[in-house]
Predict the structure.
Amino acid sequence: MSISIRAGLVGLLAATTLVACAKKEEPAASADVAQAPAAAAAEEKVVNVYNWSDYIDPATLEQFTAETGIKVNYDVFDSNEVLETKLLAGKTGYDVVVPGAAFMERQIKAGVFRKLDRSLLTNWDNLDKEILERVALHDPGNEYSVNHMWGTTGIGYNVGKVKAIDPNAPVDSWSIILDPAQVAKYKDCGVSVLDAPTEMLKVVLAWKGKDPNSQDPADLQLAEDALMAIRPYVRMIHSSNYIDALANGEICVAVGWSGDVLQSRDRAAEAGQGVEVAFSVPKEGTIIWFDMYAIPADAPHPNNAHAFINFMMRPDVAAKNSNFVNYATGNAASLPMVDEAVRNDPGVYPPAEVKAKLFPDLAATDEFTRLVNRSWTKFTTGQ
């Protein structure tokens, strides 16, 4: 889930005429039409998709167009907050978006999405029932969404640099980032945290032994104090730049998303400059998150949106995407087709003992979210 699109991805997208959806102006669907897809014949052969970057195999987009004749206009974002701002404003022109489940939970209540038409999703039975149950905490009955990928939030680190500074560095603990005495050691080689307010709040609370989904203002203050204590040692607050920064050796410790850190690991290995990147799930526990395909209520091409999602639910397609992005897919039927190196990577598909420590990222009230954002602004500005 990063914003810096690989050169190869840019080339492929350009080659397949995946132009920016923002440049198109489509008429918004009426409220009545929003709950019942129009006849396919009435839709132009286009689907407008808004997804996290570096989060799909571009070959699958080409394949979808080749098989259906539907052109894909593909835009990218790098934070749930950016997507949410567009969705709540309405008339985005997008047919398919990929929000995080916690944000989607709140957006469903706001009437942002249309219910899925299961009759158009013939590949539904391919989905992982355990993932469906977990996602149902955010989308009861799985009425509005389909899982694209899932993963964890953890620690990415430069093995050589961290060991050189401290051979006994607690790389399996949030302490390496959240304990001022620890993180201070890595100030010069570079520390990065996600620009994701709710996630950072929850990992701090988990580290402190609190309920990570607490909405107690006292717990928020506790987390804010902890974050402000490490602020002098944090070089980067970003949700995507850390991928290349880790791979290039520009930073040495980062809070990051599992697949992104593993992409960084692979890029470092491909570069052959002696940089070794590793990922760990902290022993205190961490978030298991889900990124979901959903259709905005005013999507201009709802049938094409269903066709796109159904295509992505095919086992062969889901496996291609999982192999490309190093994230776990919620498509159980695809697992035999996922590369063995990906399928057996504990950073992608955590073992049972690690899964037991994972907690959901539940949506907070609007009031508490405002408090979190206010606290996060203090952290990002250092004031």
